[in-house]
Amino acid sequence: MTVMIHHEDFDPWDALRAAEQGIPVEARGAASVFVGRMRDFNEDDTVTGLFLEHYPGMTEQELERIVEAAQQRWPLLGVHVAHRVGEVRPGDALVLVATWSAHRAAARDACSDILERLKHEAPFWKRERLADGSSRWVERNTPG
Amino acid sequence: MTVKVLYFARLREELGRDGEQAELPAEGCTVAGLWENLHGEPPPQRLMTAVNQSQAGPDTPVRDGDEVAFFPPVTGG
Fold first, then answer.
1. Where are the domains positioned within chain B?
2. DSSP string, A76-144
3. Across the interface, do A121 and B8 touch by the CB < 8 Å criterion?
4. What's the mean pLDDT in A6-14?
5. CA–CA dist B36, A104 (Å, integer)
6. Which residues in chain B are contacts of A141 at CB distance < 8 A?
7. Cβ–Cβ below 8 Å for A137 and B10
8. For position B42, what pLDDT does the model report?
9. What residues in A contact B18, CB-CB < 8 Å?
10. Interchain contact, B50 vs A58, CB within 8 Å
11. With an 8 Å Cβ cutoff, are B74 and A53 in contact?
């Protein structure tokens, strides 16, 4: 199980390949992956950039707690969670959640659960910059 | 007792500071009591809190040396 905070742009597919190395290939019948990237629009406005703030220390602990809860609930062979912080541009990867299990239901359900809990519980905050030069804090997550 | 207080995101900007040291008269304080002591009113409704980097509620006790964080609802992912 690994939890990573990236301060610079990262390639989620490279991270995925690296994370997979430690899991025996013969056992991992199923992998489920979610990659979230920054959009260039939100609530009908063009967004030119994003500042992602976190709470160093607590953010990592919360992500670990969320992953551990998923490991208790589903038979997982591996979990990798990565999240970007700092100045982000449209198209940059924001979040990666990957789960490996022997079977598809555990991998898929755990991936979805970790992502949703991350969005509602882990201390990250987004401040978006708009095309007219103004900026605003994002007040809530999109419904899905 | 002394408590380290942290503010994040919009709350940090609105208050104009990322934290402060709070000197409280005695033991037996709660998270909500700490906010009221510092800001003179009950904590805002949607405020989230953590004590020593674990999620906490308004009634969570605060002790000498604790790190207490206040922040708006989270928006990661």
1. 2-71
2. EEEEEEEEE-EEE-TTSEEEEEEEEESSHHHHHHHHHHHHHHHHHHS-EEEEEEETTS-EEE--S----
3. no
4. 98
5. 49
6. 75, 77
7. yes
8. 93
9. none
10. yes
11. no
Domains and CATH numbers, chain A: 2-137 (3.90.1170.40)
Residues of B in contact with A120 (CB under 8 A): 74
Q: ipTM of this predicted complex? A: 0.94
pTM of the model: 0.94
- CA distances in angstroms from A94 to A20, A97, A109, listed in the order given: 20, 10, 21
CATH H superfamily, domain B2-71: Beta-grasp domain (3.10.20.30)
- Whole-number Å distance between alpha carbons of B18 and B38: 14
Q: Which of A39, A53, A83 to mutate to test the interface with B (most CBs of B within 10 A)?
A: A53
Contact at CB, A62 and B8, closer than 8 angstroms: no
The answer to whether B12 and B18 have CB atoms below 8 angstroms apart is yes
Q: pLDDT value at position A143?
A: 75
pLDDT tens string A57-100? 999 999 999 999 999 999 999 999 999 999 999 999 999 999 99
B74 touches chain A (CB under 8 A): yes
Which two structure tokens, joined as six digits, stand for A8? 């610079």
